[in-house]
Design a protein that fits this description.
The protein has one domain. 75% of the residues lie in helices and 0% in strands. The protein has 7 helices and no strands. Helix 2 runs parallel beside helix 4, helix 3 runs parallel beside helix 7 and helix 4 crosses helix 7. The protein is elongated. The termini are far apart.
């Protein structure tokens, strides 16, 4: 009596493949870029508070982070580099404002949230007073970095 023995099929034949990570989704790319911008605002503000000065080259990092998030998650879409550039400019500016609010909060012994919500006009005036041509240049460079990184990282 001969027994017909057949070994079990390898797992790669019987198990479903793991789902691929979401890529090329414009909506997720936008969400990733916004989240990256929020993180960058906090980090850039903390850097400004820690050094008590604006570090223009950090704007390049802000732009690169936002562009990387948009391009990596969103893939190739003409909207994402432009959105990344705009978000980068807003994030650099908001990070500078946040840094100024943190410095002022320490000096005045109040909450940074109070300064951001109640003394916004004074904060904007302080930013305008401190702004110089390099401030605007680094805003533009941050936007350019986001645009280029988003384009090049997308597949």
């Amino acid at each position: 009596m001969s027994q017909n023995f057949q070994p079990p099929a390898p797992a790669s034949y019987t198990e479903a493949p793991a789902p691929a990570p979401a890529r090329g989704n414009v909506g997720l790319g936008i969400v990733a870029a916004v989240v990256a911008a929020l993180v960058a605002i906090g980090v850039y503000g903390a850097i400004i508070k820690g050094t008590e000065r604006e570090i223009g080259y950090a704007a390049v990092g802000v732009g690169a982070l936002i562009g990387f998030a948009a391009g990596k998650v969103g893939g190739r879409n003409a909207v994402l580099p432009v959105l990344g550039a705009l978000l980068s400019v807003v994030a650099v500016l908001a990070g500078q404002m946040f840094g100024l609010a943190l410095i002022a909060a320490d000096a005045l012994d109040v909450s940074a949230v109070d300064i951001l919500l109640e003394d916004t006009s004074a904060l904007i005036e302080a930013w305008k007073t401190d702004a110089n041509p390099l401030t605007y240049l680094f805003l533009a460079i941050g936007g350019y970095a986001a645009f280029q990184v988003s384009r090049k990282i997308a597949d």
